[in-house]
User: Which sequence fits this backbone?
């Protein structure tokens, strides 16, 4: 019996790159502990199943000398390093074409400097991209993109983010890119040169975030933490029954213990007008238990690879 393809992608968003000190009890500064422990924990976690992930990383996190050895180690272990912009601007969609290019190319250059190769995949911060990005990525030699989240509840997710980010700029209060992306194909596809949500021959391979069939309910780690194991396992059974491939998205915060004293004061305080993900308040042991249960289900039915490996063999 044939098995479907699957991949785990992880947005390596540090507190520093997301919040930049806004709303924190100890503004500014940078601690390498989050990146170190997060990468070590996720490498150890996936080693059990010999799964290699795709890590969407922020260029600024490569600047700290202490970070470089951890990034190099996980790259040598077989995990893919992909592009998540240089400075993680939440309002990436609203940047000028030149600013977008600087964010993409800047991360690519520092990635090449640290790990010895350029990334070939890109995801916009907060999935907040637009169709203009395709030409930049094509020109820079990228082969895939992964910012499309084709969920039916996109308007609700946009509204919640807007309300939770009330103290931020208008562009930083936006998320998830163009509204038409909610109607994009739910399986990997080749885009057109002018639209991330339309199939074509001259664009990029798009790896949308997984959603359930028909109702298009999100199937990713944040939703698993929010709804619990039973509901996410129900979604999984629907996806598997329909023989859909899986692209399960996670975050660095899913593998970090935020009770560590070095990190506790860098989490935005309640009422600061900054959204605080569930992962920052869930004990690490609980997070790993829930994720472990889901991975166990998936490895029984799916073959895992990095997005880069998947893109090179995909038939679109």
Assistant:
């Amino acid at each position: 019996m044939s098995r479907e393809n699957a991949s785990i992608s992880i947005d390596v968003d540090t507190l520093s790159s997301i919040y930049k000190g806004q709303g924190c009890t100890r503004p500014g500064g940078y601690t390498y502990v989050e990146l170190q422990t997060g990468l070590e924990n996720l490498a150890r976690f996936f080693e059990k199943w010999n799964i290699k992930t795709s890590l969407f990383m922020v260029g600024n996190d490569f600047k700290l000398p202490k970070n470089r050895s951890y990034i190099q180690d996980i790259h040598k272990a077989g995990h893919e390093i992909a592009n998540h912009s240089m400075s993680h601007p939440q309002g990436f969609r609203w940047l000028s074409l030149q600013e977008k290019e600087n964010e993409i190319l800047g991360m690519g250059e520092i990635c090449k400097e640290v790990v010895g190769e350029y990334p070939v995949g890109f995801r916009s911060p907060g999935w907040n991209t637009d169709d203009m990005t395709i030409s930049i990525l094509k020109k820079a030699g990228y082969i895939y993109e992964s910012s499309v989240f084709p969920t039916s509840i996109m308007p609700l997710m946009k509204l919640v983010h807007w309300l939770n980010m009330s103290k931020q700029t208008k562009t930083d209060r936006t998320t998830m890119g163009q509204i038409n992306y909610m109607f994009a194909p739910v399986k990997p596809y080749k885009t057109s040169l002018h639209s991330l949500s339309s199939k074509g021959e001259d664009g990029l391979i798009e790896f949308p975030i997984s959603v359930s069939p028909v109702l298009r309910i999100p199937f990713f780690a944040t939703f698993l933490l929010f709804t619990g194991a039973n509901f996410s396992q129900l979604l999984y059974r629907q996806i598997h029954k329909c023989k859909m491939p899986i692209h399960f998205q996670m975050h660095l915060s899913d593998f970090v213990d935020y009770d560590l004293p070095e990190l506790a004061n860098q989490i935005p305080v309640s009422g600061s007008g900054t959204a605080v993900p569930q992962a920052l308040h869930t004990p690490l042991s609980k997070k790993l238990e829930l994720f472990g249960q889901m991975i166990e289900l998936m490895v029984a039915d799916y073959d895992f690879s990095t997005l880069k490996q998947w893109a090179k063999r995909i038939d679109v």
Q: What stands out?
A: The domain at 4-313 is CATH 3.20.20.370 (TIM Barrel). The two ends are 22 Å apart (CA to CA). The CA atoms of residues 191 and 199 lie 4 Å apart.
